[in-house]
């Protein structure tokens, strides 16, 4: 190679290089434009979208749970409050591997299969980034184990929450009811926003009926979280509003007294404040601990409750329907008087049985030795000694439809309208009722059965109490009420209550007769009069569980205990100015006088203790 | 002789010009580098959750980088031309060593443990390969003949093959590109270019089926539809585009980026650092950075165009375009144009080995520049 060619060669090499650089530069510029266009697109054209996305990333709305309204008795005793409990919750998005996390957690604390099944169900219903509870009610030990290991449990956290607690346990279970987890069915119907701060809902009783007031208003917090879900700061918040606190008419002392007296029986008692219709006590035994249900009842506990022969979950006070037996006699007597089928002077002769025209079979008088109540039995005696034949005779004249019409005003055969759900209506039969319900015509024999509260007739203990209260108040029709005040404010009485159309003298007569049931030596409830410091009116009743033919004697030894007669009692006191009225039943208690009446005495005694004026006046 | 020049010029009174010439430092290049490194420290501080830990380490890397660059610059280009083969052999050996005694992190075996620090030999190959190819081609005919092209391609593919084994497809492609640029700038015939292009296209399916691992395929699929697996493979790309997009024109302000500060952004101080910058300084910040990069690449090309030797031209040009490709791949990957590969943003991402490689490259550039100025 000579210098010349080398020179040419070098120039050519340089030119090739320059050309290639230019080509590469052009390509590079095109690529740069693509990049710049991409960043322009992201940062300018779609800027708003990404701002929103970045905010969605970091800002989360957390519901702030309102505390559920408290429930007090009339004296300010707390019947339902809220206690802090600690729950283990998981945010699925923040756990890298949820199944592994569950395994890890199970290695640290005890998590049952049921917990996991329930958790997975809940998981399906929740919103993204929402806490899902895995285990409730962590013990202090479990909490500290989780705290120590929290660094390797991404996605799991222990959260404090207020949980319903019923300090009186089983005492008020049937009245107040309980809250429980929102189940799948409920989650379809509830307003999910209102319930975003809680996973509990009132299931029965006051808790259910007043759910709307007790729930409160959910608040919220906008929080900034980092990628691991850790809250960095609170950006804004709206405080939750606590639910209304409710004051009930219930009196804890009366409730406790009644419960203690009845707890070994299957029984129910309802006590009503005569002047207001407020429920002073409402007991159904056996009862159960409502606290079991709050954070999910275990299968074992639940089966035990459901399978128990005594049916502790069954609210006898409003759902138990029993033949009212002789407790019906006072109102039937009043109806007879008002309807002028009988008078105060009217008497009958009671041979111990009653024959109706054209019927071979006699109706027996259950409340007398063979031989009956004797001659010249008037209405007072028929009430005091509970003579059946008097009412057999009277009822045929009065007729079932008149009896039914009045009885309904006393609260029988229809829902009383108490402010808890689940009430049964009982049955106050009439000709119309029988045609519709049974498709049969009414017979006079049916009237005779009904005249002593048997046959088709059924009433709940609540209805007995309402009847008793309306007897006491001389026919003032007040709906029974549990809630007395909301946030301390009493609801003013609204409508003028209706009054059952019965003459004043008849009320006087019946009050006297019912007083003598307790206070007369001949009264069926006379055994409770000992040392009584006030005037109590009452009426015993016995309801047959099985029918016994007229010829057979009721022989308790031959009958299974569960088929023994039910014992009933209605009462009010003091007779002069009635304050409290009671209806109660003891299943298979046999006689109202021996089993039921003493309980009424105990409860009314307890009530009268706090009525100093009355006590002084009567002594 | 070189040393004598150096001593003589130092002893000559006056003239910082002369000292500069003696040290072979290109002021413009140095200025751009210092600016970029300063930006790097600022962004790393913010990305690292405002801890000075990474900043301090990176500062050490930068200072070491400048020292290395200065040292490299002291040797004239022909020294590097001569030593290229040895460096290449050493690089291949260390790559082979990685496969046998390398440290495995996150399922990839890329590092050699030197006791005091870990070294990523594949990073060094990004400079060794273009050096090797440039010296090989410059020694022979320009434009390269078929024989030389074949040999050069083999020289490129040997390290590429080794890096794929680690596996590190991203780096392998970048090494491949850096070698290819030398061939291209040397005037590789158009017919070769076309056939190489066709071959590469034809090789794509086999790349998919035989070379790419499942996670690599997943990354490609994710690019096509990041929403498909929001919390898994799609997470990175969703979070980085969100960070970039929410920055807007002027950004949320230094250390005020919610995506990076609240840890939504993965790898925020390394591969995804541009997302932090874009979120906190906005499009203005991104464009400013791109401007600096253009200056830097422009300066490299200027040095290349003014180089006196073919080797100098080729190495300067290939470094310039390789740098461009690094930047392009990183910016595209973070903004969701290309699949996620392990490619840091040159001079800005945290990381020592990549920085060293770059500074070695700039040192060689300065050596080339100094050489042409002296003539």
List the helices and strands and how they pair.
The complex is a heterodimer of chains A (619) and B (375).
Chain A: H1 3-45, H2 47-58, E1 59-64, E2 71-72, E3 78-90, H3 98-108, H4 113-125, E4 132-135, H5 140-149, E5 156-165, H6 173-176, E6 178-181, H7 184-189, E7 200-204, H8 205-209, H9 211-215, E8 219-225, E9 231-238, E10 246-248, H10 252-262, E11 267-273, E12 279-285, H11 291-294, H12 299-307, H13 316-319, H14 329-338, E13 347-350, E14 353-354, E15 363-364, E16 374-378, H15 379-384, H16 388-398, H17 400-409, H18 431-438, H19 444-451, H20 461-472, E17 483-486, E18 489-490, H21 504-519, E19 537-543, E20 566-573, E21 580-586, H22 592-609, H23 612-618
Parallel strand pairs in A: 2-10
Antiparallel strand pairs in A: 1-8, 2-3, 3-4, 3-5, 6-7, 8-9, 10-17, 11-12, 11-21, 13-16, 14-15, 17-18, 19-20, 20-21
Chain B: H1 2-11, H2 16-23, H3 27-47, H4 52-74, H5 77-101, E1 103-105, E2 108-113, E3 118-119, H6 121-139, H7 146-164, H8 169-185, H9 190-211, H10 214-224, H11 235-247, H12 258-261, H13 273-306, H14 310-334, H15 352-374
Antiparallel strand pairs in B: 1-2, 2-3
Helix pairs in contact in B: 1-2, 3-4, 3-13, 4-15, 5-6, 5-7, 6-7, 6-8, 6-14, 6-15, 7-8, 8-14, 11-13, 13-14, 13-15, 14-15
Give an overview in words:
With 619 residues, chain A is α+β, with helices and mostly antiparallel strands. Chain A has three domains: 43 residues; 189 residues, Penicillin-binding protein 2a (Domain 2) (Alpha-Beta Complex); 349 residues, Beta-lactamase (3-Layer(aba) Sandwich), CATH 3.40.710. Helix content of chain A is 39%, strand content 19%. In chain A, strands 2, 3, 4, 5, 10, 17 and 18 form a seven-stranded mixed sheet that branches. In chain A, strand 20 and strand 21 form a beta hairpin. The relative contact order of chain A is 0.10. Chain B is an all-alpha fold. Chain B is 73% helix and 3% strand. Chain B is built from 15 helices and three strands. Chain B has a three-stranded antiparallel sheet, covered by helices on one side. In chain B, helix 11 crosses helix 13. Chain B is globular, with a radius of gyration of 21 Å. Chain B starts with a helix and ends with a helix. About 3% of the residues of chain B have low confidence. The interface between A and B is large, with 40 and 46 residues.
